[in-house]
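Figure 2 data, in text form.
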Amino acid sequence: MSGQTTTGDVARVITAWGRIETQMRVHAPASAALLRPPASAAEIAAAEIAIGRAPALKTLYQLHDGAFGSHSDDFENDHEATPPVAAKEWMAAGFLPGNQVWYRLNEMRAQYLHQTLDLGRDPGCLPISNAPGDSWFGRFVGVEEGEPTYGNLGKWAVDDSNSMIPYMTDGWPLPDYLEETAAAVEQGRCLTQPYGCGADTDEHPCLMEGGLGWFNPDEAAGGGWQPVPRAR
């Protein structure tokens, strides 16, 4: 996953993720508790051999090896860490926009091999997340070097073709996406897409029982979710 990441991209990813994690630790400790320790250099190298490279993504895995919660048996069968009881609420795991949970390296590799070998999907699309406990749809990063989609964010679904975010564009560069996510969490608003495409969805960052999720605030209130306070 080393790719062609520039020094500037690395710094932007680290800074943007730091902003996101700061807000999580202050407002959504149950979600923050699901973050795993950094992946080791050996683990990252093994993943690169198996699935290729993607710019900026390596930097994220040097910060955390994804999060608990992408499969229903994570808390029962993963003995490397024991998250707090409050963090066992599945919605706490969907802290990324679209209620996505960040793959661990081994999950990323398994999903990539499943999609490319079993489903015949594009090997230039590296899955990085899915909805908690649901392996039917998620997000990917382009890893085909030399292509305009390289290092950019897209959507995958088992029963649909892959597409970039925003639709019919070259995709959302990962550092840009993380910076916009940080701003949205800090300001309690929905994401604004690049290329002048307006809002991504009507989903705003919301909180419940220490977990961070993304919902329409009017609809979420009935389920107990409350808007994230704006950072001062």
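Caption note: The first helix runs from residue 7 to 27.
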